Amino acid sequence: MVPSDYRLQNVASGLISRLEGTRRSYLDDPEAAGREFTRIAEGQIDAALAEMRDLGMADDVESHSRFLEEEVHQTFLPRYTRLA
Hints:
Blueprint: H1 8-23, H2 30-55, H3 61-83
Helix pairs in contact: 1-2, 1-3, 2-3
């Protein structure tokens, strides 16, 4: 089981907070925004997974890692980037 702090909705919520702080810097350059959003997302996912591993908080961190990466990169980021 994955603790609630590391579930998709909480990771995405934290990610929105991080991205909103960056979004205005890239209003005139959507391609650069997409690259920066991806970099931030990867860092957020990596940090959450590292913390889970360190605390021994999940049965299968690798499976959750694949799930988070797929949902963030294929669903969340494209939608957020379009709206930003």
